[in-house]
Amino acid sequence: MCSRDCCSGPGGSAKSGNTCTDRKNAKAVSVEKIIPTPQSLLYPYEVIQEIADFIVKGSNMRPKIGIICGSGLGSLADIIQDAKVFEYEKIPNFPVSTVEGHAGKLVVGNLEGAVVMAMQGRFHFYEGYPLAKCSMPVRVMKLCGVEYLFATNAAGGINPKYSVGDIMLMHDHVNMLGFAGNSPLQGPNDPRFGPRFPALVNSYNKELINKALEIGKQMGIEANMHVGVYSCLGGPTYETIAELKALRMMGVDAVGMSTVHEVITARHCDMKVFAFSLITNKCATEYSDKKDDEANHDEVMAVAKNRQKACCELVARLIRQIQASS
Ligand SMILES: O=P(O)(O)O[C@@H]1C[C@H](O)[C@@H](CO)O1
């Protein structure tokens, strides 16, 4: 409340119009102090352009496909040929990876006839990075010339039909962080990236999902392949039973701590998206005392290591098909 007699309080009408200058000034000072930089302004277009130029010039390649390797799936980048490798700490304005299983390297090179750039290590919200920082590399990819984003992740299987080691092709997501009011696009919109209000229906490219299913058949892994809904929670805690029950009721098949904000950023700048989850653990949705029911990162990494060959093959074959049809 304004302590002076000239107006009636914080939102109230001033006695003489809106002229309580003391109050206005006081507000302006405190508002300036408390408002943090909006997420969308953390990495302005020009900074993203500088990073993209650094990569394109440093590799002498212009990638068409961007790959984000999930936990333990860094070997997706090891199959790239004629690779130019950039350590994250040597890339100007790039964050560093802090999670085990995320090496912190950007690999640019050839895969099945296409120039690709792969992130061996992604950034997660729980590492302390705002979402716009987590997904900033997707904009770098875009300005490098990337048309397709391949995002992969390790996830817990909530759908009771899923087994450890299965691959779930993402056809939709539930954005839990978005439900809570967080978005990588929060803040002023730069139309050079995309529109203020991007639509997210059809975010996951149906043609690529169908091609991947066909490839799954050719590889003989169709019984271990699903099409489902992923949800990202903030982490780093794994979910409680009550949370898992709630997610299941919402139609979520697999849960993780990444990817959704990357997909939002990619769709905002009109990239085609293909994403899959490797199911590294089964999520318990009933109370029990069994220690086996508890997810842990070592298990996540071990399963990813076991299944990396199949994941690499799926990605390589899909890229071959994209190249063949372009
Ligand atoms: O980077 P992704 O989403 O693959 O990593 C998952 C989520 C956590 O970072 C970690 C938990 O084990 O794996």
Automatic annotation (TrEMBL):
Reaction(s) catalysed by this chain's protein: inosine + phosphate = alpha-D-ribose 1-phosphate + hypoxanthine; 2'-deoxyinosine + phosphate = 2-deoxy-alpha-D-ribose 1-phosphate + hypoxanthine; 2'-deoxyguanosine + phosphate = 2-deoxy-alpha-D-ribose 1-phosphate + guanine; guanosine + phosphate = alpha-D-ribose 1-phosphate + guanine
Domain Nucleoside phosphorylase: 64-320
Binding site for a purine D-ribonucleoside: 239, 281
Keywords tagged on the record: Glycosyltransferase, Transferase
InterPro entries hit by this protein: Nucleoside_phosphorylase_d (IPR000845), Nucleoside_phosphorylase_sf (IPR035994), Pur_Nuc_Pase_Ino/Guo-sp (IPR011270), Purine_phosphorylase (IPR011268)
Signal peptide coordinates: none
EC number: 2.4.2.1
Enzyme class at the top of the EC tree: transferase
Pathway participation: Purine metabolism; purine nucleoside salvage
Any coiled-coil regions, as ranges: none
CDD domains, A to Z: PNP-EcPNPII_like
GO MF assignments: guanosine phosphorylase activity; purine-nucleoside phosphorylase activity
Recorded superkingdom: Eukaryota
A GO CC term assigned to this protein in UniProt: cytoplasm
Binding site for phosphate: 71, 102, 122-124, 154, 258
GO biological process: nucleoside metabolic process
Function as written in the Swiss-Prot or TrEMBL entry: The purine nucleoside phosphorylases catalyze the phosphorolytic breakdown of the N-glycosidic bond in the beta-(deoxy)ribonucleoside molecules, with the formation of the corresponding free purine bases and pentose-1-phosphate.
NCBIfam families for this protein: PNPH, PNPH-PUNA-XAPA, PRK08202.1
Family (UniProt): Belongs to the PNP/MTAP phosphorylase family.
Stated name of the protein: Purine nucleoside phosphorylase
Gene this protein is translated from: Dwil\GK12508
